[in-house]
Amino acid sequence: MSGAASGPELDVLDCRGLLCPAPIIALARRIGDVPVGALLGVAADDTAARHDVPAWCRMRAQEFVGEEKAADGVPIYVIRRIT
Amino acid sequence: MTNAAVYLDAASSEPMHPAARDTLLAALEHGYADPRRLHGPGRNARLLLDNAREVVAEVLGVRRDEVLFTSSGTRAVQLGLLGLAAARPGRSASGPPAAGLPADGRRIVHSAVEHQAVTDAAAWWGEPVTVAVDTTGRVLLEALGEALGKAAPGADAIALQSANHEVGTVQPVAEAAELAADRGVPLFVDACASLGRLPLPDGWDALAGSAHKWGGPAGVGVLLVRHRARWSHPFPAGDPLARVDDGFPDVAGTLAAAAALQAVTTEREQVGARQRELIDLIRASVAHIPDVDVVGDPQGRLPHLVTFSFLYVDGEALVTELDRLGFGLASGSACAVDTREPSRVLAAMGALTHGNVRLSLTRDTSRADVERFLAVLPGVIRGLRERAGL
Question: Whole-angstrom Cα distance, residue B148 to residue B188?
Fold first, then answer.
C-alpha cells in the first residue's frame, strides 16, 4: 500500500488491544464526526479487523482506501467517508 | 423457555438416521471379528463389510474396488490428497521434508476456502499454492489455471471441495477437472459437505466423505480412489500400492454409514427440496435485519445451509444467546473459536467475519422450527447491539 492517501495529519482511531467487533463499533461511532470526503484511520491489531474494516465499508457504503503501518507496526486501516 | 431445543448445526454433524441406528445395533452383534480371518466370526464380519462397500459403491455409482473405508473424514482427506501427490513421478511416500529444509518443489494447489483438513494436509506436504475465490466463495477458474502455470513444472495435486462447508457454495468441480486433465495434475475432491445431499461430481481422481455429516455414525470416513488414478499410500504401509481400508475397520459403524447413505440418497430429492425452500425463506427474512451480510451463492449452494454476519455483534455472544433461547448454531467469528482467528472462508470471500452464524438444517427441521427462530432473531440482534451501546 502506498502512503500517498494520507498526510501526517491523518486522524487515527486507536483500537489497539480491542477485539472484534469492538474496533468496528468504535469506527461506527466516530464516522459521524468525520467530514464527508475526509479520511479516518483505524489502528487495530486484532486480525479480524483486516477483513472487517473493508467489509464495513462495503456494507455502509464508505470507501476503503487501504492499509498502512503505524510506527509501532500496528496496521492502520484507512477509510474515506463518502456518504 | 418451554420450547425443546432446536438443533440447527447439521453441517457440523447430522443426527443419526434411523436406518443407521437400526443397522448399527444389529451389526454390533455380528461384526466384532477381524474380517481377514478365515473363521466363522471373521467371515461374518467380512460379509458385513463387503455389504457396506457394495451399498456405497452402488449408491455413488462407482466400482466396489474404488471404495475404501477410513476412521474419519479427515483421514480420508489425508489419504486421498496425499496419496495422489505421493504417486507423482519423482515423489515418494516418505513424508514431508524436515523443518527448515527446502520443500523440493512439492506443491499442492487448493482453493482459499478448503476445510482445515485439506489445508493442513497441503501444508504438511510442501508449500501450498492458494487459489482465490469470488465474493460468493466460488473458486476463480482463471486463477486456478494461472496457479497451475505458476506452479510449473507441475503441482503434485489440486484439491477442491465439492461445496463449501461454511457458506454452502457449490464449486465448479467439472471445470476444474478439465483444467487438471489439461495440465496432467490429479484432482482431489473433498465432498464431506455434500455427500448424500448432492449428486457426486465428475472428473476427480480421489474423493473423501465423512459419515457423520450425512447421518451415519462418527468415526467412519469414505475414500474413493479411481481405479485408473495413480495413488500410493502416503503414510507407513506394508505395500504402499495396495488400496485397502485404513486400519482395523469399524465393521458395524461402516455398515451403518452405508445404510444411512442409502437412506438419505433415496430421500434426497424430497428432503433437499424442502430444505432449499426453508433456506430461501431464511435468507429473505434475515436480509430484512439492518446491517447484515447474508453470504454464499443464493442458488448454486448446498440445500440445507446458510451463513450470515451482523455488524457490531459479537459472534460468541450471539451463539450463546441463541443457545439460551434453545437454538444451537455454529459461528465462524474469531471470538467463537479456539484459535481466535476469524474464518478463513469468510475472509477469503471479503465477507464480514464478526457477528457470524452458520445455520444448517437437519433432515427433520420443520418450518415451525425455522419460523420460531426467525421470530426471535431480530430481537436478539437488537438486544446485543443495544448492549454494545449502538
Answer: 15
Comparing CA positions, the residue from B12, B6, B9 lying closest to residue B212 is: B12
Contacts of B347 in chain A (CB under 8 A): 50-51
Residue B314's closest CA among B357, B345, B354, B344? B354
The fraction of chain B above a pLDDT of 90, given in percent, is 89
Domain ranges in chain B are 18-266, 268-387
User: What value does the mean pLDDT take over residues B42-51?
Assistant: 97
**Cβ-nearest to A48 among B312, B354, B389:** B354
- What residue in B sits closest to A26 (Cα-Cα)? B312
User: Where does the pLDDT of residue B381 fall: very low under 50, low under 70, confident under 90, or very high at 90 and above?
Assistant: very high
Is the CB of A60 less than 8 angstroms away from the CB of B291?
yes
- Note the CATH number of domain B18-266: 3.40.640.10
Give residue-wise pLDDT tens across range B321-333.
999 999 999 998 8
Q: Where are the domains of chain A?
A: 10-80
At B237-252, the pLDDT tens digits run: 989 999 999 999 999 9
> Cα B251 vs. chain centroid, distance in angstroms?
22
Name the interface residues of B facing A (CB cutoff 8 Å).
Answer: 291, 293, 309, 311-314, 333-335, 341-342, 346-347, 350-355, 388-390
Task: Write the CATH number of the domain with boundaries B268-387.
Answer: 3.90.1150.10
Catalytic sites of B, residue numbers: 335
Fold of A10-80: Translation Initiation Factor IF3 (3.30.110)
Residues 6+ apart with CB under 8 A from B120: none
